[in-house]
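HUMAN: Now follow token order:
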Amino acid sequence: MNKVLRDADEAAALIPDGARILMGGFGLCGIPENLIAALHRRGTKQLTVISNNAGVDDFGIGILLRTRQVRKMISTYVGENKEFERQFLTGELEVELVPQGTFAERIRAGGAGIGGFFTPTGYGTLIAEQKETRTIDGMPYVLEQPLTADFAFVKAWKGDRAGNLVYRKTARNFNPVMATAARVTIAEVEHLVEPGDIDPDHVVTPGIFVRHILQGAHYEKRIEKRTVREAAR
């Protein structure tokens, strides 16, 4: 099967209105820049986006929020996006906030076919409302459900035409686990190579999880917050 797409616009054409999408990244690190931009250009709407955060106002998922293409966000940290805050407070955007560790484990459970798991995180808080709780070895736990999606947008450093992916440093973040938890995973890579060009021991996401792959371009790789110190005098 030929998994290689011409570009991100061809990938975005596969996404219908109302789709549920896992989007990799942590802050602005390791986000699928090309796929998000293509979705923005196409105008696909009523999306449910599952992502650690919501980008910033003018980059990443923030551009989809600005044009009202997102109906619901399932996230852990959203504090860098003023438009997100405005839409949330005015009731324009549905939001499900999830503790970060629980978020990662829910996605892992979705990819592994696990029906749910108990965690102590969130017990006794709003997070636990209307959820099953249980005491195990004297500790209270909350039952959490797996997270899955119709599509996953993931970003990798290198990938081959068979869909095997290698990530680079912290840009790896949520991408590998999200690749396992969607019905259709689309990967954009900085370097697209031939099968056999990647050492099998270096593969993080096996191609079995990737339906489509494309060569990305023109990466900005923005830094969300840059901290510098004054030069020595």
Q: What stands out?
A: The longest strand covers residues 149-160.
